[in-house]
User: Fold this.
Amino acid sequence: MSTKKRILFIATEMSPYLELTEFAEVINKLAIKSNDSGLEVRCIMPRFGVINERRHRLHEVVRLSGINVTVDNDDHPLQIKVASLPNARLQVYFLENEDFFKRKQIFHDDNETWFDDNDLRTVFFCKGALETVKKFGWPPDIIHCSGWMSGLIPAYIKTAYKKEPVFGNSKVVFTIGQNTFEESLGADFLKRAVINVNIKDKDLDAFKDSNNTAMFKGGAHFADAISFGSDIIDKKLTDEFSKVKGKKVVPFKGWDSDLTEYLELYNDLAGK
Assistant:
């Protein structure tokens, strides 16, 4: 039986598949560095329609088929595809849904208009990622979330999924990055984000502004540890989270960092 510590990266973006900010390359390097350091690594991200299935050699994981994700009282089928990260022996799992991720744009249409279902897409991705881990039957020691779209995951792990054995020993790291959108996720976002009886409206107060800053704030609020993933961070977030009692905080150390600070954090949280 393997004694390796397990780390799961749940990311909005990851090089070479999708690069919206410079942190996409950092996640790539972190996954490889973690793998090379003896951790057992898996990665999950959305399969946006702009990600080329043939070029990146994605294929469906049949054994993980049959998952339906309920969002706002509607069931949405979740298809899971996998690819091997180039130059590394680790797997990246892509969450796919015809309605939410098949379109050939990310968060705005060709006229730069914000998609009015980005709130549903976010809830679907966050819940879908955790349902995928349950289907794996693979309890992660560390879950590192990055990108605003992953912001609900720390909250879900501490509330809606807190009774799930697969997450019983998981420590959550959340990276606060640069803001990349100015729009709102809408007036119904919090209502739609309440996904089961183990989570209440008041649990999501940190997300109440339903904007980019709120997604980072909420994710950081529920995480066991926080990192800063950019040199361009909303001042309100740096003021609130640079020093937080009871949480380990990793400052941004530049784009040329060797990322040792993350490995030290993972090992510390995992009890090595």
Notes: The longest strand covers residues 74-84.
